[in-house]
Design a protein that fits this description.
There is one protein chain. The chain has six helices and five strands. Strands 2-1-3-4-5 form a five-stranded parallel sheet, sandwiched between helices. The longest helix is centred in the C-terminal third of the chain and has 35 residues. The relative contact order is 0.16. The chain binds flavin mononucleotide. Flavin mononucleotide binds next to helix 1.
Length: 198
Amino acid sequence: MHQVLVIAASQQKASQSRKVADYINHQVENLGANASVLDLGKTVLPLWSGEPAPDKSLINTIRDQLNHATSFVFVVPEWNGMAPPAIKNLLTWFGADQFAHKPVLLCAVSAGQGGAFVISELRGSSYKNCRICYLPEHLIIRSVGNVLEGVSPMGKSDNYYRNRIDFVLKDLLDYDLALSTIRPHALERMEDFPNGMS
Ligand SMILES: Cc1cc2nc3c(=O)[nH]c(=O)nc-3n(C[C@H](O)[C@H](O)[C@H](O)COP(=O)(O)O)c2cc1C
């Protein structure tokens, strides 16, 4: 059974990324799959330092959530033309055991017309060792304050985003199913080459 974990990667306690994550979570459930949200603005991981975590139970809870997920949506705001530290920190705390050969839909969020930097940054540099599989499709939710607010679309662009989200979530669920057949073999082979090539 699909278990989609939607990760809201803003560090703000109340964020537009969380709004988008909640909307996506709801749409995944509408498609008949299980989904839940992990909000990195509320479930705050300490910055990885190599030292033991002050709160081990928090790390274990997040690890269990990631292990349990069969696919992910990363909802990531663009901050100063970058992905915020919270998503990089998550990808430093956890790795191939949680992410390898699982599909991920990238969803960038911008209050304005940004978002593309987040997509290229994560596609460019975050998958080498954890072997996460980004879908070829992605989302960029621009002018996020004006969309995905209520049950009905507020206009043409809101309607476009809602249709686009449903379209790409169907891809995600198909990849989820397909990669579940590949993952056990791929994980076994990884023992010979635990790190990707630089
Ligand atoms: C520190 C900071 C830097 C930001 N830099 C950008 C940016 O480079 N590009 C952009 O489109 N929006 C930028 N924004 C605005 C975000 O798009 C906006 O806060 C949006 O709501 C997504 O962030 P949130 O999920 O934290 O709410 C920035 C916001 C913050 C807090």
